[in-house]
Request: fold
Amino acid sequence: DIVMTQSPDSLAVSLGERATINCKSNESVLYSSNNKNYLAWYQQKSGHPPKLVISWASTRVSGVPDRFSGSGSGTDFTLTISSLQAEDVAVYYCQQYYRPPYTFGQGTKLEIK
Amino acid sequence: EVQLVESGGGLVQPGGSLRLSCAASGFTFSSYWMHWVRQAPGERLVWVARISTDGSRTTYADSVKGRFTISRDNAKNTLYLQLNSLRAEDTAVYYCTRPRISAIPDGFDSWGQGTMVTVSS
Reply:
């Protein structure tokens, strides 16, 4: 199985400041034939199902604010929130969909400082 | 509007069985691979199983292989998960979900609200 590891486990950031969450896979999720990274980011608020924020490592899903961005390739990925808003408080998960089982990271809890 | 509505969860004794259902609407159900993902209280999301558009191909997480069965009825726009030989560690909220794009693997952009399965004596 592909193991996904996020860092940090929790993060406290001031409103308006940048939040950065990292995700590392133990093998590449870059499919060489199409040069796409099979990596997604989700936001999960307490008591709710996850919400897809980023797919293909860097493609922001329709309706997601442009303060959210994804980067990285191969085994190392980053989710950045450029200016933290109160509504961004949530747990964020990365997931690889390169090969089943489609494993998730352990989650990063993002809070307001 | 895409809707996924799970049902069938509940309290069951170890070794027991349950059948979860997921009613889909708002999209062409038969065009999408469908998946089940679960989440134990306070824990990470865990992918459980997937099924092809016509139901002929299935894949399972090792932790449920041989005990759970995913199936679908495209005429009824419904996804199922049969849970047998349940263990305490199967206690979780079970979500049905589908990828953003029908033809290829992608992130899961539509999720149900989940149905809780509790395995306890």
Observations:
- The interface with chain B takes residues 1, 38, 40-42, 44, 49-52, 54-56, 61, 93, 95, 97-98, 100-107 of chain A (CB under 8 Å).
